[in-house]
Task: structure prediction
Amino acid sequence: MERAYAWLLVAALVSDAVDGILARRFSWTSRLGSLFDSLADAILMLVAAYGVWVFHPYVFEDYGVAIWTVIGLWALQHLLAFVRYGRPASFHTGLVRVAVMAFGLFLATLFMLGFERWLFFTSVALSLAGVCEEMILILLLPEWTPDLRGGLLEVLRRRAAERGRHQS
Result:
């Protein structure tokens, strides 16, 4: 049962990545598509966490504080986005994409080869950095802005350019 779950999870992670690549490559993007992609990502991550809980409960027992910290901050980030924008954040920053790739690699490794502590903590660190970046973006951006690939640096550059235009 675990092996079948693992293959389905890997297929879902790969299809999510391919979907994003194709959407950006061929400009098949929209605000609604970005919103649905964020919702699908959230569901996929929750299903993945549940699979770890069921098939590898020792990961939650030994590293639960780190896992629940990431999940809690992730939930807080989405709550902040709902309060601010009335919808989940769909920034899709580069940092978040790297964090998701690391998490996907951790999951594939966990289910196929076993627990790798360094990969787990790399995923946690990247996830925490990505969630923190998105919370800062929610505070800085007055309106919902999907697909902000450049992340915080892009927003800071835009703000500096606007200030420069207003001072001229």
